[in-house]
User: What shape does this take?
Amino acid sequence: MKKIFTNSFLAFLILFLFLAFTPEGQKSPKLRSSYVVLGFNDLGMHCANKTFAKMCILPPYNNQFAHVIKVGDASNLPEVQPAGSGVYVTYEVPGNTYSVGKTDFWTYANTLFGVTLAPNIGLTGRGMTGTMHDTLNYFDAYGIPITPFTDANLVTEDPYQLTLLKAYDAGNNLLATTQNTIPVSNDISCVSSGCHSSEQDILNEHEYYPAFSSPPVFCATCHPDPALNMNSGSAGYFSKVIHQKHGSITNNCYKCHPGTNTQCLRGYMKIIGKTCTDCHGSVSNVGNTIASGRVPWVNEPKCGDCHDANHSENPGTLYKLSKGHGGLFCEACHNSTHAEVTSENANDNLQNLTLQGYTGPLKKCEVCHGYIPAGPGPHGYNPLGIRPVSEKIPNATEILPNYPNPCSFMTNIPYTIQEEGTVRIDVYDLSGNKITTLMNDRLKPGEYKAELYTGKLSSGTYICQLVTNGSTCQRKILVIK
Ligand code: HEC
Ligand code: HEC
Ligand code: HEC
Ligand code: HEC
Ligand code: HEC
Ligand code: HEC
Assistant: This one.
């Protein structure tokens, strides 16, 4: 009896120690004192087939990137690693440790790709955990063979799982960790949408090869597909034939792109009301522009189509490959296209929320600099919202009238802080549901301004609440559409 007790006590102790050192524990601020790691995915969604018995559109293949930054101080700028530093980064997806059986890819990999792959190892030789490759000022891991199924649930897709990245120095000391979305979905609904009766039916309908004799068929062997770097097929680009063929049938991108359940468009551009066709045009347009010279996956819409030159991609470069302030990828501060922070998905927002205390693009200078430099920061900004608009010490801490009011798309919310302290500003609806956090930081006395984007909110009254040093003030904001 005593022995059992001792054993279970030991087990409890080990469990306790284990929990104390799990990622949750590692998020404690003291680890962030001298290094930060920023993780990001190149695309807002990586789509893959689940079954490969009949056809392969895309294999399990996900890409993860990271910057490791040695935080600066008043006399040193932040240093982006690796630069010969010996720093290295490992990746894992807690709760998702294997892929064989979650897809039958490994049964058909040899037929489709002519390679023999060890179980759970993807097309680039990477598994579900590993060490990232370092190059220039970043780390990458191409071809992680993740599926949308966690170990705990083999039935329901979880398209927005979190990676855990750990940065170590050359002496194997843990420097920093982060968690960021590794989006993946099998939600390609050729059959489940009711459009095709089976995958065999799709093969049967292929006008030019009505009887593909030995499935699985790999579409990209004949239809060039830059996404897979397969460009030698002699038929039309895969993207051209698929969109031209379906353009007259549907304009619902979610019939094929993930998807009805996954809803891959979830970022700030979605929140302000943009839809796929606002940026890409119709399904026919996606196909027809290729017919008239657009290279699929290479010539895509641009942030700069709507934003000014100061907030655009590097010339002639995709967003996912463009870099901005400090030589950092745009995605390190903003996250990927279709998932720009603030995103509707909490996992997309987690990294910046953890690092700076509020969602949205990384803008808190101290996260990387360790203090507030005189500027210019990203896009030439001075620390807006953190530096006071006016440093005159106000008579009261209050929220001043917002303008415009009522508003439909956006409103400015000026406020004054009389005494230094941590200031938190949240916006609630009338039922008390929190809509967003506009500020959560230590501020000196002065007059400040917050901006609230209301594009996603329905008409009605909202409450903006400021809490600091134990006092609370509120103001009503009227949204009219
Ligand atoms: C063996 C070569 C080959 C393979 C493999 C192949 N295709 Fe094609 N496909 C062609 C050719 C040739 C055409 C006609 C020329 C063109 O439009 O590019 C064509 C045309 C098409 C078209 C437009 C014409 C139509 O059928 O209405 C679609 C859509 C299409 N293919 C889809 C697919 C899909 C999906 C796959 C994978 C399941 C696939 N193809 C695999 C050779 C191939
Ligand atoms: C606000 C504009 C915008 C909206 C809305 C939008 N996209 Fe995009 N899309 C882009 C941009 C910009 C790129 C190019 C990304 C790059 O340069 O790295 C892109 C690229 C893509 C790509 C190529 C792969 C990639 O992610 O780079 C696909 C596929 C795609 N979009 C599909 C969609 C679908 C489907 C929808 C709707 C569910 C959608 N897009 C909505 C702007 C948009
Ligand atoms: C009938 C299915 C289908 C529909 C509907 C569809 N797509 Fe696609 N789309 C695909 C497939 C399959 C690919 C992958 C092609 C490849 O691997 O090259 C693709 C790739 C793309 C790409 C990347 C390649 C390129 O041409 O630049 C973009 C962008 C894109 N789709 C946009 C859209 C948008 C926007 C819509 C809705 C207006 C849409 N698609 C509707 C099947 C579809
Ligand atoms: C179809 C037009 C369009 C495209 C393309 C587009 N945006 Fe926007 N974006 C807007 C509009 C409209 C707003 C809201 C007004 C504003 O702040 O300019 C906005 C707002 C934003 C904001 C919020 C600004 C703030 O002050 O909070 C960010 C960040 C942003 N966009 C990033 C991007 C990125 C990154 C891309 C490319 C991947 C992109 N946008 C592509 C139209 C677009
Ligand atoms: C070091 C972080 C950082 C990097 C790198 C960065 N941005 Fe930004 N970006 C920001 C911040 C901060 C804002 C302002 C958001 C705010 O005021 O709330 C912003 C705003 C934007 C906006 C919205 C502008 C508007 O009209 O309000 C766009 C678009 C944008 N960035 C695109 C890009 C592109 C494209 C790149 C890469 C070439 C990039 N950013 C690189 C931090 C960054
Ligand atoms: C995500 C990390 C990050 C954030 C957030 C950030 N910076 Fe930087 N900053 C850097 C890096 C990296 C460098 C480049 C250091 C080098 O050149 O060696 C840099 C360089 C600078 C420089 C030197 C001149 C230049 O542009 O190269 C200034 C000034 C600066 N940042 C101001 C700011 C201000 C102000 C803010 C807050 C509004 C800010 N930064 C936010 C990472 C960041």
Q: What stands out?
A: Confidence is low (pLDDT under 50) at residues 1-32. The pocket of heme C (ligand 1) is lined by residues 55, 206-209, 217, 219, 221-223, 235-236, 241-242, 245 (CB under 6 Å).
